[in-house]
Write a structure and sequence with these properties.
Elements lengths: L7 E6 H6 L5 E7 L8 E2 L5 E5 L3 E2 L5 E6 L5 E5 L2 E5 L3 E8 L9 H20 L3 E10 L4 E2 L2 E2 H15 L10 E7 L5 E8 L4 E3 L24 E6 L2 E9 L2 E2 L2 E2 L5 H22 L11 E6 L5 H12 L4 E6 L9 E10 L5
Parallel strand pairs: 2-4, 10-13, 20-21
Antiparallel strand pairs: 1-6, 2-6, 3-4, 5-21, 7-8, 8-9, 9-14, 10-14, 11-12, 15-16, 16-17, 17-22, 18-19, 20-22
The structure holds 3-(2-carboxyethyl)benzoic acid (3EB).
3-(2-carboxyethyl)benzoic acid binds next to strand 13 and strand 17.
Length: about 350
């Protein structure tokens, strides 16, 4: 996915990763990382978010590589490793859960991670969070009387509000998935100096308005964000699932959940195309990351996706728990379209 001079995204295998050029890489996320990978900064100064989710269907180790098409500069702000261009910053933080503290351990880790992210953005002057990826160990487990995903939501909302950032409306696109027990919390993100357009899905209630039954602290994310920059439109679609309104639908039916998820993404694409005239985002122009709760569902999921996306699609499949127990699949996506197409 390459737009002249602008941002682009590739999913590559270990072999491709090892032979790739580095000059314009902004940041990397690795899935089921090899033991040789280390989180934080790798030897070439590129920030690497190391996530322990098993890779399904693709090669065993996959690399999500964000390139910026220009020279970039690396840095470290406390625990946040980052790399930046004049317009954009990629950062990542790995935060183990502390022993002790006023709040449950995952909540403490999330408070710390988001404080560090906000401090980095303030110090480097990239005010606009575009996209945040959150990987929470054991996301569905209850502890201290609440589900760990809710502990995360409480901390995320708290820090963003305390930092003077919006908690409804102008909030980043996001994903929040499970990681294996005993993994650290890993958060990586893209931020910009230009504000994005915030896109909601007419088929779904905005997550920041969800009723309290999903937790007293609402999930702070937009369904998608759209950035016009460096000759292209970049579209970041949040983790999207089989939710209509605020309810999970097709409980227990992986085929129907997959179709509903794709219908939701289609609805978001229609909204994005209204906001970005001429960009003509289509399902086939996206790079997709598919989170699968139960590996044995993969053949059904792939059959549906092949129909809609075509076989050549840039798609990776990861085993991960979804933040609601009744959801079996979640799909996130990114698309980059040259502005020239907007003529
Ligand atoms: C949903 O639509 C499914 O808490 O950051 C998707 C994307 C979901 C992001 C988050 C949660 C998050 O509510 C879950």
């Amino acid at each position: 996915m390459r737009a002249s001079g602008g941002l682009h995204l590739d999913y590559v295998s270990l072999a491709e990763y090892q032979t790739a050029g580095w000059a314009d890489v902004l940041g990397v996320a690795t899935f089921q990382a090899t033991p040789a990978d280390s989180s934080g900064m790798d030897c070439s100064g590129i920030p690497v978010a190391r996530i322990n989710t098993p890779v399904l269907a693709n090669e065993p180790h996959m690399y999500e590589v964000w390139r910026c098409g220009e020279a970039a500069e690396s840095g470290q702000h406390d625990r946040v490793s980052y790399r930046r261009t004049p317009d954009m910053l990629f950062g990542c933080i790995t935060q183990p859960e502390p022993h002790g503290g006023r709040h449950p351990p995952l909540q403490e880790a999330t408070l710390e991670a988001y404080r560090q992210i906000c401090a980095t953005l303030d110090a480097q002057n990239y005010p606009h969070l575009l996209r945040v990826w959150n990987y929470l160990p054991d996301i569905n487990r209850e502890s201290h009387g609440t589900e760990r995903y809710r502990q995360f939501n409480s901390a995320r909302l708290h820090v963003l509000r305390a930092n003077g950032r919006p908690i409804i409306g102008g909030v980043p696109a996001a994903s929040a998935l499970g990681a294996p027990r005993d993994s650290p919390l890993v958060v990586y993100f893209l931020a910009a100096r230009t504000a994005p357009i915030f896109v909601e899905n007419p088929r779904q209630m905005s997550a920041y308005h969800y009723p309290r039954q999903y937790g007293t602290h609402r999930p702070v994310f937009s369904r998608a964000t759209l950035l016009r920059q460096s000759g292209s439109f970049s579209l970041f679609i949040s983790g999207t699932a089989s939710i209509v309104g605020h309810r999970s639908v097709h409980v227990g039916d992986i085929g129907a959940q997959t179709r509903e998820t794709l219908t939701n993404i289609q609805a978001l694409l229609a909204e994005a195309n209204r906001a970005a005239p001429g960009a003509a985002f289509t399902l086939r122009s996206l790079a997709c990351k598919v989170y699968v709760r139960r590996p044995f569902d993969l053949p059904i999921i792939q059959a549906h996706l092949n129909e809609v996306l075509g076989r050549g699609a840039r798609t990776i499949f990861l085993q991960a728990d979804i933040c609601r127990q009744d959801l079996l699949i979640e799909i996130e996506a990114a698309g980059i379209r040259p502005l020239a197409a907007a003529a």
